[in-house]
Every structure is written in structure tokens, then in C-alpha cells.
């Protein structure tokens, strides 16, 4: 899918396919940030999965689960844009720490209402929206911090390590959530996230100060709305960065079936919460494996083509998942039992393979999209570009959840992944063909 034989920076080609851990050795600060973010992210995925299962248990409606994304979408977009501007204006360590504290407080609130036995669904929507806003600002700021901790030649390696981190988050987190919900209930499940979040706070607390850099004229970035507008205006002259956003929006809008997993576990494949957690874990397992084998992949020179090819594979894998669900439903082999022992095991295995391929392809795409953003954008604009990037990578899936949940409600469960996966392939190939500079993007000469 990508040519790993060419490296940047004039260094010798890496012979090993195993992940390069040089960033962890070169920067203890990055290592602490990576470990803390991984543990906190596992907890965040525990909560995200538990909330979806909790709302489905309360309402028996996939559409009501998708409303988590509907209510958070606007605030997430606004917080990503403005949060990136704040990260370019103030000490990024402080910005990330404050935002993370707010996210932690919202998780504490979820645990408290679960312990109190609150069943009012709107309370979950309000708290998860606050959590999404704070997490968006924290994520954008953390990503903008990374290039200040590492030299440019290690950024693709760091992105691969972050792929492992993300894979662990969405493998361990959902799987753990499924088991915890089934065994000890929702209150204890949310409490686990409260405890794990502390590791992320410690990782940020131990960072050095990351003060904003001034421009070539010695002037600090503007504040408020002017700063947001300046960041958005930069995209007009940054076709490669812009296209990296566009292709991800396409993939996540039309090929993000995760909101369907509770229903798939409840009335299609069977197995209830455990199956839903396994499906999410299958996607993440592919991401982990692709990062573990990224030693030579991260040296690829033509990164635009690598992104296109990875997303095409992603779309085909999501289409495959839709076909698996369709075969089960149309063939009359659906299982409604919540006991994992009664699940349709062949269908579950096939679905897991498709989702693992999708997760691996998505991770390869993410490695190069993040590398383009961190290496081609000047530091004084990096917070704002990361803010927009965070809006894309969080808002796109939320839009995808909205679309998949609504379409499944109007049709049947297999339609969103089957139709969406095919659309991802067609639209991404067409979009990249129209922007030649992205198709020919050269890591040896990074241009925004």
C-alpha cells in the first residue's frame, strides 16, 4: 500500500518492519505524555462505550444512541476552532491541563448520576457534550505540543506510536466496558474512567512549559475570533492540509458504523454488550497491528498516495462488514440473545476480520495525515490547524454516527455500512485525482 523504501532526512532506510520507538527514547517528556494519554484514553473509551450501551438499555433505540453525536456536534466544532486558537495564544501545557480537568469532572458527574440511579436520558446528553468539548480542546493542544518535543524526522514515528496508543484505547476500552457493564454495572464502569484519567493529568503536569512562538515579524498570534479567522484563512493557501481533512471527512461520514454495534450485538449477531465491545476492539486491533508493523511504512515518501490507498482499503473493509450483517439478516440467522455463548460465531468472526482491516487502514491514513499537518504547518498556526484537525477527526465520526443511526432507523442495519463503504471508495479516489499536489505530496519537501 505504501512504499517504505524511501526515507526523509537523508537517513538510511529502516530495515525492520517493527515500530520505531525512537521518539520515546529521544524525549522523556513525549514518553510521559504518551503513557498518560494512553491510559486516560482507555478510560475515555470505557465511558464512551458504556454511555452508548446505557442509553440503548434505557431506550432500546439506535437513534437515541446517535443523539449523543447530534447534541455534541456543534459544540465540538466550535471548541475545536476556538480551542486551537487558545493553544496558539497561551502556554499549551496549561491549556491542555485545564481542558483535561474539565473532561475529568464531567466523567465524575457521569459516575455520580449512575450511582444515584438517574435514568433521565437528557442528563447523559448534557454531560457527554461537556466532556466532548473539553476533550476536543485537550486533544488539539496535545497534538500541537508534540512537534515542540521532537525533531521533524521523528514525527512519523511518533504518529505511529500514537496509533498504538489509539489502538489500545479502542481495543482495551470497549472490551473492558462490555465486560464491566455485564458484570458490575454502569456506575463502577464510569468510576474506572475516573481513576484512569488521573494518569493523563499527571502526563500533562510533568511537561515543560510550551509557550507560543511569535511570527517572523515578532508579533504574537491574534486573540479571539481574529485568531480563528486567520487559521481558517490559512487553509485557502494550504491545499495539501485541506485535502487531508477532506478525505478523512469522507471516510468518517460515510464509513463509520460504530453506532450500530449495540443493535448488532442485541438483535443481529447476538451477544449483547460483549459483542458490541468486541466489534469496537476488532477495529482497534487492526490499528495496533498496523502500528506495530510500521517500522518501514513510516519512511514512505509519497504520503498523499499512501493516504488515498489506505482509505480505499478502509472503505472496502466497511463494505465487507455491511455485507456480513446483510447476510445474517437476509439469511434469517439473526440472534437476539444477550449471552455471548449464543452469538452467531461465524458472523462475529467475519465481522471482526473486516473491522480489523478497516482499523489498520484507518491508522495508516492517520499516521500520514498527522505527519503532513505537523511537518508542513508553521508552529504559530499549529494549534489552530490541530484544532481544525481535531474537529475533523471527532466531528466526522459524530456526523457518521448521526447518518448511520438515522439511516438504519429508516431502512435496516446493514444499509449504512454497505452503501457507505462503497461511497468512501468512489469519493476519495475522485477527490484525490482532482488535487494533484496532494497526490504528489513529497515528504522530502513538505508543503502545506
From TrEMBL:
Highest taxon, organism lineage: Bacteria
Keywords: Cell membrane, Membrane, Transmembrane, Transmembrane helix, Transport
The keyword Transcription regulation is annotated on this UniProt entry: no
Protein location: Cell inner membrane
Keyword Membrane applies: yes
Listed transmembrane segments: 33-56, 62-82, 94-116, 122-140, 160-181, 187-207, 245-270, 276-299, 311-335, 347-368, 388-408, 414-433
Coiled-coil segments: none
Domain Major facilitator superfamily (MFS) profile: 192-448
Subcellular location, principal: membrane
Xref: InterPro entries: MFS_dom, MFS_trans_sf, TM_effector
UniProt topology in membrane: Multi-pass membrane protein
Pfam families with a match to the protein in the record: MFS_3
Protein name: MFS transporter
Organism whose genome encodes this protein: Intrasporangium calvum
Amino acid at each position: 500500500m505504501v512504499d517504505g523504501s524511501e526515507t526523509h532526512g537523508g537517513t538510511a532506510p529502516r530495515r525492520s518492519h517493527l515500530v520505531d520507538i525512537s521518539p520515546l527514547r529521544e524525549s522523556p517528556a513525549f514518553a510521559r505524555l504518551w503513557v498518560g494519554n494512553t491510559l486516560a484514553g482507555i478510560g475515555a473509551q470505557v465511558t464512551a462505550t458504556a454511555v452508548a450501551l446505557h442509553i440503548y438499555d434505557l431506550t432500546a433505540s439506535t437513534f437515541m444512541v446517535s443523539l449523543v453525536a447530534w447534541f455534541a456536534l456543534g459544540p465540538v466544532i466550535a471548541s475545536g476552532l476556538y480551542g486551537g486558537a487558545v493553544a496558539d495564544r497561551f502556554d499549551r501545557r496549561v491549556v491542555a491541563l485545564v481542558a483535561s480537568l474539565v473532561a475529568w469532572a464531567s466523567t465524575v458527574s457521569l459516575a455520580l448520576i449512575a450511582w444515584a440511579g438517574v435514568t433521565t436520558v437528557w442528563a447523559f446528553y448534557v454531560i457527554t457534550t461537556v466532556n466532548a468539548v473539553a476533550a476536543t480542546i485537550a486533544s488539539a493542544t496535545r497534538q500541537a505540543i508534540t512537534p515542540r518535543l521532537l525533531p521533524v524526522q521523528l514525527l512519523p514515528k511518533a504518529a505511529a506510536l500514537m496509533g498504538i496508543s489509539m489502538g489500545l484505547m479502542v481495543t482495551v476500552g470497549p472490551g473492558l466496558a462490555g465486560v464491566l457493564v455485564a458484570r458490575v454495572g454502569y456506575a463502577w464502569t464510569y468510576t474506572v474512567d475516573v481513576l484512569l484519567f488521573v494518569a493523563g493529568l499527571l502526563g500533562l503536569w510533568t511537561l515543560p512549559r510550551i509557550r507560543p512562538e511569535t511570527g517572523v515579524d515578532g508579533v504574537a498570534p491574534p486573540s479571539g475570533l481574529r485568531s480563528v479567522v486567520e487559521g481558517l484563512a490559512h487553509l485557502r493557501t494550504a491545499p495539501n492540509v485541506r485535502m487531508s481533512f477532506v478525505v478523512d471527512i469522507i471516510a468518517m461520514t460515510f464509513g463509520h458504523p460504530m453506532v450500530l454495534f449495540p443493535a448488532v450485538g442485541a438483535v443481529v449477531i447476538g451477544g449483547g454488550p460483549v459483542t458490541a465491545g468486541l466489534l469496537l476492539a476488532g477495529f482497534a486491533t487492526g490499528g495496533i497491528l498496523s502500528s506495530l508493523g510500521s517500522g518501514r511504512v513510516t519512511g514512505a515518501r509519497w504520503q498523499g498516495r499512501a493516504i488515498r490507498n489506505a482509505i480505499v482499503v478502509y472503505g472496502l473493509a466497511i463494505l465487507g462488514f455491511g455485507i456480513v450483517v446483510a447476510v445474517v439478516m437476509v439469511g434469517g440467522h439473526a440472534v437476539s440473545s444477550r449471552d455471548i455463548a449464543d452469538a452467531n460465531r461465524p458472523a462475529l468472526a467475519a465481522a471482526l476480520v473486516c473491522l480489523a482491516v478497516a482499523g489498520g487502514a484507518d491508522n495508516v491514513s492517520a499516521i500520514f495525515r498527522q505527519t503532513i499537518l505537523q511537518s508542513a504547518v508553521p508552529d504559530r498556526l499549529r494549534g489552530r490547524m490541530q484544532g481544525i484537525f481535531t474537529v475533523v477527526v471527532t466531528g466526522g465520526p459524530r456526523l457518521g454516527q448521526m447518518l448511520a443511526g438515522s439511516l438504519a432507523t429508516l431502512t435496516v442495519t446493514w444499509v449504512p455500512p454497505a452503501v457507505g463503504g462503497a461511497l468512501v471508495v468512489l469519493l476519495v479516489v475522485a477527490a484525490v485525482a482532482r488535487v494533484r499536489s496532494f497526490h504528489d505530496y513529497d515528504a522530502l519537501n513538505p508543503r502545506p
